[in-house]
Amino acid sequence: MKYDYHCTVSRRGFLAALAGAAMSASLPPARASAVDERRIKVAPGEARFSGEDGPPAWTYNGTMPGPALRLRQGQPVRITVENGLDEDTTVHWHGIRLPNAMDGVPGLTQPPIKPGESFVYEFTPPDAGTFWYHPHADSLVQLGRGLAGLLIVEEAEPAAFDRDLFWLLQDWRLTKDGQIAGGFGNMMDASMSGRVGNLVTINSTVPADLGVRAGERLRLRLVNASLARMMALRFEGHRPVVLAIDGQPCDPHEPEDGRLVLAPAMRIDIVLDMRGDPGSRHAVIDDFYDGLAYTLTNLAYDKAFPFRSHPLDAPLALPRNPLPEPALANAVRQEVVLQGGMMGGGKLASVGGMMGMGMPGMNGGAAWAINGMSMTGDGHAGMAPQFTLERGATCHLTIRNETAWWHPMHIHGFSLSVLSRNGATVPHRQWQDTVLLAPKDVIECAFVADNPGNWMLHCHVADHQMAGLMTVFRAT
Ligand code: C2O
Ligand code: CU
Ligand code: CU
Predict the structure, then answer these.
(1) Which single residue of 13, 90, 249, 251 could bond 9 by disulfide (Cβ 3.0 to 4.6 Å)?
(2) Stretch among 88-102, 136-150, 313-327 having the lowest mean pLDDT
(3) Which residues line the pocket of ligand 1, CB cutoff 6 A?
(4) Least confident segment among 189-203, 314-328, 378-392
(5) Which of ligand 1's atoms lies nearest the C-alpha of 132?
């Protein structure tokens, strides 16, 4: 069967839309009620990093990254995912506050999608913003072989930018002959920094200069879809302003030292006013790791006259999403302690009561723990919740990193209001689904348990997740 690689409205969706239109002839377009139908096929393909033939990889709809899904806030969507791989998969809609059964965690929220089978995901995105989707089965290998796509939920009123761009950033470990290296989940990666690679791409392509015009105002959606690589981007000669983090608008602000820190799974939306001179060129540098700074790409100004003669006014904040406000006075307190990993000297930190420690870090073994317990893999049936929250209760969550490594901790089904880091208040009203902890950091955050189900909380360094830095909690 020839597969249609474009996201089109199916016949069923088309008929539904027609019916909707007929019934509401005197009303404005029935957009909010019509179901948006999409199809995604997961299948082997190629990674065309340089535009030409590339190594074998796994793809969504034959493209890499997968198709950028543009959904509308409050409009139901139905996405049929067909598995053309010869192993199980699922799709997780990272950051979307959706019903638990649609969350894509095999064993925990749905049966895995077997080879040749399909699963229909249905949800209504409550929040506008920048999200992404990826598998939650054999996560390390499937993400590492290329399965990832952007998911944009559009604001009801389009915001005023000259261009709306995205950079889905990925990090690849390639062999000398340009193949995606095997050896996923080895003990070194699992118990240390994770599988950091040797090629960073933008939208799955070796970065070329980004052509810009003096005076333009860009919205740039940054997504770190790497397995393990942390990034800290600086735009030389420019002053990016952060508009949203993990899809959730914050008070617009310039980042500390002009560095945009993006750990795996994090998103940052910035507004970038092109203040350079026509014909000039400015580097975009990633200097997260000491001594390993590199130029990711360059902003290359067209020689033409400025796009507009006067710079625009201060950027406007994006409209806030309908997040429930935590009631801190009556909050239930929970603590999550991150433990394990390599301490130096080749020793794994010992963790009292750590389960499944047979072969530390070896394929499926545990190298990490949360509160003394190691859940390994992608999620599976029978994972006992670490804690249970009553529906509607506010949870005041402390995350304490007792390890010597960085961990972007990700919560499913909710967004966290980040209160403080090492005792200092976090400014700019930041809500995040992925919170980065430096070694020994303590973070306080809060959320309202308004979304029932068994939810994951895990490190998004894929090797760490697979090797035990994962837990489950329940909202009733
Ligand atoms: Cu982006 Cu549990 O995942
Ligand atoms: Cu997620
Ligand atoms: Cu981690």
Answers:
(1) 13
(2) 313-327
(3) 92, 94, 134, 136, 265, 410, 412, 456, 458, 460
(4) 378-392
(5) 1
Taking only the tens place, the pLDDT of each residue in 15-51 is 333 333 333 333 444 455 689 999 999 999 999 999 8
Query: Of ligand 1's atoms, which has the minimum distance to the CA of residue 379?
Result: 2
Instruction: Strand 66-72: give its sheet, edge to edge.
Output: 66-72, 149-154, 129-134, 92-94
Q: Which atom of ligand 1 is nearest to the CA of 94?
A: 1
> pLDDT-derived band of residue 348, with 50, 70 and 90 as boundaries?
confident
According to DSSP, residue 191 is labeled H
Query: How far, in Å, from the CA of 95 to the mean position of ligand 1?
Result: 8
Mean predicted confidence (pLDDT) in 208-221: 96
Distance 439 CA to ligand 3 centre (A): 10
> pLDDT value at position 31?
52
pLDDT value for 5: 30
Positive/negative CA dihedral, 335, 340, 341, 344? positive
CA of 224 to the centre of ligand 3 (A): 15
Bridge partners, residue 388, by sequence:
474
- Among the bound ligands, name the one nearest to the CA of residue 367: 3
User: What tens digit of pLDDT does each residue of 409-450 get?
Assistant: 999 999 999 999 999 999 999 999 999 999 999 999 999 999
Task: Centre a 10 Å sphere on the Cβ of residue 187 and count the other Cβ atoms it contains.
Answer: 18
| CA 95 to ligand 2 center in whole angstroms | 5
Distance 219 CA to ligand 3 centre (A): 30
**225-268 pLDDT, tens digit each:** 999 999 999 999 999 999 999 999 999 999 999 999 999 999 99
Nearest CA to ligand 1 atom 1: 94
SS3 string, 230-298, reads CEEEEECCCCCEEEEECCEEEEEECCHHHCEEECCCCEEEEEEECCCCCCCEEEEEECCCCCCCEEEEE
- Separation of alpha carbons 355 and 159, rounded Å: 49
Measured torsion, CA atoms of residues 31, 247, 164, 203, in degrees rounded to the nearest 10: -110
Single pTM value for the model:
0.90
| Contact in structure between 432 and 408 (CB atoms under 8 Å) | no
Specify the residue with its C-alpha closest to ligand 1, atom 3.
94
Tokens of 42: 């997961």
Contact 386, 411 (CB under 8 A): no
Ligand 1 centroid to 470 CA: how many Å? Answer: 11
